[in-house]
Amino acid sequence: MTTLGTRFARARRWLCDHPLAFDAGLALGVLLCMICASFADPNHGANGPSFGSRTPGPFSVLLMVLGAAALVLRRRSPMAVLAATGALSAAEFVVIDPPAPVVMSAVIALYTVASRTDRPTTWRVGLLTMTVLTAAAMFFGSAPWYSQENLGVFAWTGMAAAAGDAVRSRRAFVDAIRERAERAERTREEEARRRVAEERLRIARDLHDVVAHHIALVNVQAGVAAHVMDKRPDQAKEALAHVRDASRSALNELRATVGLLRQSGDPEAPTEPAPGLAVLGELVNTFRNAGLPVEVACTDPENPLPAAVDLAAYRVIQEALTNVRKHAGTDAKAEVSVVRVGATVEITVLDNGRGRARAGERSLTGERAGRAAGDADGGGHGLIGMRERVTAFGGTLTAGPRYGGGFRVHAILPVKARTGEQATSAVLGGTGGQA
Fold first, then answer.
1. Beta carbons of 355 and 372 less than 8 angstroms apart
2. Residues 6+ apart with CB under 8 A from 275
3. Pairing status of strand 334-341 against strand 396-401
4. Which of 187, 209, 211, 207 is nearest to 199 (CA)?
5. Angle (nearest 5°) at CA 192 between 186 and 195
6. What's the rounded Cα separation, in Å, for the pair 301 and 299?
7. Do the strands 334-341 and 294-298 form a parallel or antiparallel pair, or are they unpaired?
8. If residue 41 lies in a helix (H) or strand (E), which one and from where to where?
9. Model pLDDT for residues 257-299, shown as the tens digit of each residue
10. Per the CB 3.0–4.6 Å rule, which of 93, 194, 239, 324 could disulfide with 351?
């Protein structure tokens, strides 16, 4: 049974790939059926139609051969084939009595037209074919107009039109389902690619947050250690201790971040909680140890923020202080404030730095242009990253020089993400700028 089914499926695929061969075989089968039916006489049997009591004439055989031959082209020109077979069938009804079943070819042609055109065309063409062939059979035959042969012409042509229309509707339905499934598959693949891209962006920015902050501190403390190594070894040891602590923190955060790339079955998946304002004091102490005085004002510290908002606020402060330490100069001071205002939290980071040049040697625009432009001189995108992070929550971020000197970063984050943004904040909440 398996071998027979395989052969049948293989033959079906071959016929689908060669429709002209299928139509030629169908035409041959229809011709054999018409010839066999032409030997039946429905009017001279004692108990009904008799077989072999009559033979088809040469003209009838010619019409049957022409009607069957026209079916070979039924896919290429369905209307023309229907017109030709209909004319041959009408001619048989008019000339020969009793007629040979040439109308069988017209029935197949009408089915083809109905299955390959729209419904209004099927109705018009079907009614016209039924009317012409039934009228020819009723008016030109010797049998009464109500004979079963004449009514059979009406019934067969009507069933051919209905069957063709049903097949066309089913094909359209299957095609619509297939198209919908393909569209859903494409949408699913696009959504998967979008989520992968967002996750890559989140991981890249989280890596930046870790590396930019800690490496900046390591660079400062290493410079201090090198400067005082000979004259004040105790201070150099303290600076090297800060380097060690900063590098250890960087490694721990890198391990936690890169651990997100592990597969679900990999061991030692990261379990460290994401940083937030609860550890803001530790973050500020690292900058103080690096020589940057920082003052912090935080209202309502006992009322924690949502995890994603808390992480975004922490990253904004971390990035802003890192930029202060890198660009504001050695004598700069920073101020950080976190204030809950209704359904939002406002984060402000101020500094009074003048850049690495001495005060008065460069204009304010020239001093901090790199920062306002996203550290373009160094190829970074710190401010751009912070703005993207805040915008992902539906918040706003402004950054620019202060009147009288210094720089100001001000972010407003909604405490609760707007409807439809919770998933986005979960993906982008851990991202940061790239300095």
1. no
2. 253, 283, 311, 314
3. unpaired
4. 207
5. 140
6. 6
7. parallel
8. strand 40-41
9. 666 555 445 445 445 566 788 888 888 888 888 888 999 988 7
10. 324
**Which of 247-251, 296-300, 312-316 is predicted most confidently?**
312-316
Cβ atoms of 30 and 71 within 8 Å: the answer is yes
CA distances (Å), 420 to each of 99, 191, 248, 393, in order? Answer: 74, 15, 38, 10
List residues bridging with 99 in a β-sheet: none
Contact 254, 261 (CB under 8 A): no
Whole-Å CA distances, 392 to 385, 387, 389, 421, 424:
11, 8, 5, 8, 7
Instruction: For residue 103, give the nearest of 85, 130, 128 by alpha carbon.
Output: 85
- Asked if residue 98 has a cis previous peptide bond (ω within 30° of 0), the answer is yes
For the chain, what's the residue count? 435
Q: Are strands 334-341 and 344-351 parallel, antiparallel or unpaired?
A: antiparallel
State pTM to two decimals: 0.46
Q: Which residue has the tokens 């996750």?
A: 199
- From residue 281, how far is each of 140, 278, 285, 306, 340 by CA, in Å? 107, 8, 6, 19, 18
Give the integer Cα–Cα distance in Å for 402 and 405.
Answer: 5
Question: What is the band of 348 on the pLDDT scale with cuts at 50, 70, 90?
Answer: very high
C-alpha to C-alpha distances, 82 to 68, 79, 163, 381, nearest whole angstrom: 11, 5, 16, 71
Residue type at position 152 = G
Cα separation, 331 vs 421, in Å, equals 41
Q: Which residue has the higher pLDDT, 342 or 337?
A: 337
Q: Cβ distance 19 to 75 under 8 Å?
A: yes
Secondary structure of residue 325 in the 3-state scheme: helix
DSSP string over 159-206: HHHHHHHHHHHHHHHHHHHHHHHHHHHHHHHHHHHHHHHHHHHHHHHH
- d(C-alpha 205, C-alpha 218), whole Å: 20
DSSP-derived secondary structure letter, 381: B
Identity of the amino acid at 95: V
- H-assigned helices in 393-421: none
Q: Which pair of tokens denotes residue 32?
A: 């054999």
Looking at 52-66, 177-191, 227-241, which range is the least confident one?
Answer: 227-241
β-pair partners for 350: 335, 408
